[in-house]
């Protein structure tokens, strides 16, 4: 966390003034696929650090006794999910063109990661986490659910869906912004779409919908398709 | 026989079940640099098995080296297998699925050869458990032509006898070259269409291969081991261990795990073997002769491995880094090439002298707060017996140097239960730690932290101390209690092994063929993951011994007579038993013979491997 507190921001600004020319802040949109679905948030960050090191791109580090690289994932993806669009926010040292960075990264990506997009962002741009509003998911059912359409309808019309996660009771219903059935996939599996809130303190988990449908989480595939941000960051 | 599961069935099984287990990343494979080959294109398929969980096994350098070497051959594929943790094991057992390889999810029974890595004895029950999870008969004699060939190697197999009933063929010594010879023989046998016992005969012709089924062991009326006899003329006795006269280039294409493992780092062996001759140390005896890699080779390997893996940590491994001939040059060169890249470079096993502290400090990038030393014993007197002489003054001078370099976290390795040890020597650990602590307070202040890590001496086979008895549980407890009473309070930390852990390691490492039954009984009653505190149950072993009609104390607490035959005497490490005996006797007189790199004490390595030195004119061993 490199914007963590005032003290650190100061340090960071100081760095900028001395080495402003040599820093690049990147946002990198990537897919996390099947091979990496069981890699946790922290392990994924480490995987990225190593990927940049293999590419010969120098990460910017924090100061202090135990420096760590300034690299951040905008939203943690739960273990077992795949995704079409995760976002990495990273600070590099050096003067690279975007096309060079792509050329260096692509051949050294680990199995399970594909880069979709990559662009520079202003060094002082606020962190995206704050503006994350919602996430979209596609859930694939490995076993047929004959009344999927009605089941989803009834979730939608219910006033509340009280569930217990990690010994805490909460209402799942307000976290579901959208939910509807999709056409079957190539393998003939049923699918549905959902958009759930992803604000701090109000993050909906699609595996909880799966559980509410009475389906074992081992019998579905959950794929995040998009992260959505509030208006401010859209411009 | 029920039909074998297909990789597709296993993949589907994993998709539905991995949600249920801790750290599912242990069971998926698919990491960077793993090698996946088409099973239809390759005719010899080998599973390399480390019989503990992924987190530990992925840090094992031996597996990484063999994986790389075997996969370089186009006619061979090698895949990895680790022990499933108990949660995964119960899911596998409940659903009737076999243990499988990480790369292509083939069940173990589909492989031609299963190669087990056995670096330490506490993996024995896990080995049985893995065979069982694979649906393969545990006993070598029960396997047919349809079953894979079961091979084992690693340091523990320098006494192969306790596992003799389960393993078809042992590789004694270094695996780098012999693996290829095994594959060649295997392929020729497969083409010939002969039966399994012919395969074993063929394999027994390879230098360093030991096939237990071709020998019979005899015992004396008092229960001691008498001798081993060949069942067929062709096989060798003794079995001479394998060495590679020149170390091959280090493996640099390492698999990068997605999940955290014990040592997630690039390991480069800078030197194999040790000339110090500490009398308790098995590695120091069985890894001779000492062979070094060049500075250039090491630095290039680090560079290549960094490019291949992107890992942030490098370990330069050896038994005694200070004895590497060009250590200063190596450290300087490593700095020139790699400083400023946020890497942690570790140089373990440095001698206790202030020069080591300078070396450590010279590895600029790695800012550290701690330093580890291994005096082994706290008194000069006792260190003399061990052949690890070190004056108290030198020890304190080194510590002063460590403290004045700003490091405040000192870790010291000691052993208790050593031969010639008195309670005064044990108390010496307390006194030494306290002296070190007050030095630290004086130089560096309140942050000073002294950790004493106190292991138990185990008289290991092939060492000069193999004739000594091990301390009993009661003796060890008295010594540990003394330490626990006196080494406490702020600034001190004490860690120790339970005496029962050490007893297990002792009888498993010193056992004869009769131990196979004990291991089997213990496994049958549920013993596994012996290296894990939460799993280890000594009561099962006591029971297992009693069912087999044996006494564990017979193996651990007996002083051996000079003329006693050992169950591991047929394994020739190059060091002659007479030399070990000499060292044993010198230790009793308190005499030392340190560092054989200047003066040869005639351990036997040179005569045994003379032909290798002759054949390879450019061979440089640290033998004078």
Structure, explained:
The complex is a heterodimer of chains A (235) and B (624). Chain A is α+β, with helices and mostly antiparallel strands and 235 residues long. Chain A is 25% helix and 35% strand. Chain A has helices spanning 6-19, 41-55, 98-105, 148-157, 206-212, 231-234, and strands spanning 23-32, 58-59, 71-73, 82-93, 113-120, 132-141, 162-165, 168-171, 176-182, 190-199, 202-203, 220-229. In chain A, strands 1, 2, 3, 4, 5, 6, 9, 10, 11 and 12 form a ten-stranded mixed β-sheet that branches. In chain A, strands 7-8 form a two-stranded antiparallel ribbon. In chain A, a hairpin with a 2-residue loop joins β7 and β8. The relative contact order of chain A is 0.17. Chain B is an alpha/beta fold. Helices cover 36% and strands 14% of the residues of chain B. In chain B, the strands form six sheets. Chain B has a six-stranded mixed β-sheet with strand order 2-1-3-4-5-6. Chain B has a four-stranded parallel β-sheet with strand order 15-16-17-18. Chain B has a three-stranded parallel β-sheet with strand order 10-13-14, covered by helices on one side. In chain B, α11 runs parallel beside α13 (392-404) and α17 (515-524) crosses α18 (538-548). At the A-B interface, α2 of A face α1 and α9 of B.
């Amino acid at each position: 966390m490199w914007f963590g507190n005032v003290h650190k921001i100061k340090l960071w600004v100081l760095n900028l003034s001395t080495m402003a020319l040599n820093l690049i802040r990147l946002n990198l949109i990537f897919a996390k696929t099947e091979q990496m679905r069981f890699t946790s948030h922290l392990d994924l960050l480490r995987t990225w650090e190593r990927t940049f090191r293999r590419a010969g791109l120098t990460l910017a580090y924090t100061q202090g006794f135990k420096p760590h690289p300034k690299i951040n994932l905008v939203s943690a993806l739960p273990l077992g999910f795949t995704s079409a669009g995760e976002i990495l926010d990273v600070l590099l040292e050096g003067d690279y063109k975007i096309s060079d960075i792509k050329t260096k990264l692509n051949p050294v990506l680990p199995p399970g990661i594909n880069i979709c997009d990559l662009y520079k962002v202003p060094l002082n741009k606020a962190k995206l986490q704050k503006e994350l509003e919602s996430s979209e998911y596609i859930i694939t059912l490995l076993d047929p659910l004959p009344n999927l359409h009605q089941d989803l309808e009834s979730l939608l019309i219910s006033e509340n869906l009280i569930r217990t996660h990690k010994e805490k009771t909460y209402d799942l219903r307000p976290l579901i912004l959208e939910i509807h059935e999709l056409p079957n996939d190539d393998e003939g599996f049923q699918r549905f779409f959902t958009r759930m809130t992803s604000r701090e303190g109000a993050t909906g988990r699609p595996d909880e919908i799966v559980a509410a449908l009475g389906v074992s989480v081992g019998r579905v595939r959950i794929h995040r398709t998009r992260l959505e941000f509030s208006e401010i960051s859209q411009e | 026989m029920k039909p074998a599961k297909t990789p597709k069935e296993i993949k589907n099984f994993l998709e539905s079940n991995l949600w249920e287990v801790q750290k599912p990343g242990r069971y998926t494979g698919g990491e960077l640099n793993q090698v996946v080959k088409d099973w239809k294109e390759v005719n010899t398929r080998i599973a390399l098995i480390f019989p503990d969980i992924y987190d530990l096994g992925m840090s094992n350098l031996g597996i990484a080296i063999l994986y790389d070497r075997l996969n370089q051959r186009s006619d061979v594929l090698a895949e990895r297998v680790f022990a499933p943790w108990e949660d995964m094991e119960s899911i596998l057992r409940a659903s009737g699925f076999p243990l499988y390889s990480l790369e292509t999810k083939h069940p173990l029974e589909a492989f031609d050869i299963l190669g087990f890595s056995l670096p330490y004895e506490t993996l024995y029950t896990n080995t049985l458990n893995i065979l069982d999870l694979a649906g393969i008969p545990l006993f070598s004699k029960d396997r047919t032509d349809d079953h894979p060939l079961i091979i084992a190697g690693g340091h523990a197999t320098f006494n192969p006898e306790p596992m003799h009933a389960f393993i078809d063929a042992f590789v004694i010594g270094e695996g780098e070259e012999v693996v290829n010879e095994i594959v060649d023989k295997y392929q020729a046998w497969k083409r010939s269409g002969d039966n399994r016992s012919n395969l074993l005969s063929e394999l027994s012709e390879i230098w360093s291969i030991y096939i237990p089924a071709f020998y019979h062991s005899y015992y004396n009326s008092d229960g001691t081991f008498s001798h081993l006899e060949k069942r067929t003329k062709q096989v060798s006795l003794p079995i001479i261990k394998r060495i590679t006269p020149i170390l091959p280039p280090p493996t640099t294409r390492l698999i990068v795990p997605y999940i955290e493992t014990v040592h997630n780092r690039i390991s480069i062996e800078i030197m194999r073997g040790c000339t110090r001759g500490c009398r308790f140390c098995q590695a120091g005896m069985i890894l001779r002769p000492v062979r070094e890699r060049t500075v250039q080779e090491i630095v290039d390997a680090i560079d290549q491995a960094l490019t291949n893996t992107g890992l942030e940590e490098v370990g330069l491994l050896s038994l005694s880094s200070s004895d590497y001939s060009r250590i200063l040059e190596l450290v300087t060169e490593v700095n020139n090439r790699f400083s400023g890249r946020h890497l942690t470079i570790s140089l373990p096993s440095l001698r206790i002298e202030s020069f080591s502290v300078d070396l450590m400090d010279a590895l600029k990038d790695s800012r550290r707060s701690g330093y580890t030393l291994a005096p082994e014993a706290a008194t000069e007197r006792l260190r003399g017996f061990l052949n690890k002489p070190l004056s108290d003054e030198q020890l304190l001078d080194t510590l002063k140097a460590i403290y004045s370099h700003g490091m405040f976290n000192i870790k010291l390795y000691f052993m208790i239960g050593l031969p010639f040890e008195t309670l005064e020597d044990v108390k010496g650990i307390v006194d030494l730690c306290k002296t070190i602590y007050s030095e630290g307070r004086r130089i560096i202040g309140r942050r000073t932290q002294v950790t004493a890590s106190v292991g138990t001496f185990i008289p290991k086979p092939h060492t000069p101390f193999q004739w000594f008895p091990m301390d009993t549980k009661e003796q060890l407890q008295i010594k540990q209690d003394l330490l626990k009473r006196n080494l406490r309070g702020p600034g001190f930390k004490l860690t120790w092994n339970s005496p029962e852990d050490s007893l297990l390691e002792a009888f498993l490492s010193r056992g004869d063929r009769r131990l196979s039954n004990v291991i089997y009984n213990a496994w049958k009653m549920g013993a596994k993951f012996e290296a894990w505190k939460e799993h280890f149950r000594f009561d099962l072993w006591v029971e297992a011994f009693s069912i087999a009609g044996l006494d564990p104390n017979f193996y651990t607490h007996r002083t051996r007579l000079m003329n006693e035959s050992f169950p591991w005497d047929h394994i020739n490490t190059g060091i002659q038993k007479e030399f070990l005996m000499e060292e044993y006797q010198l230790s009793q007189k308190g005499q030392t013979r340190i560092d054989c790199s200047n003066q040869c004490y005639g351990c036997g390595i040179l005569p045994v491997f003379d032909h290798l030195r002759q054949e390879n004119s450019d061979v440089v061993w640290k033998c004078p």
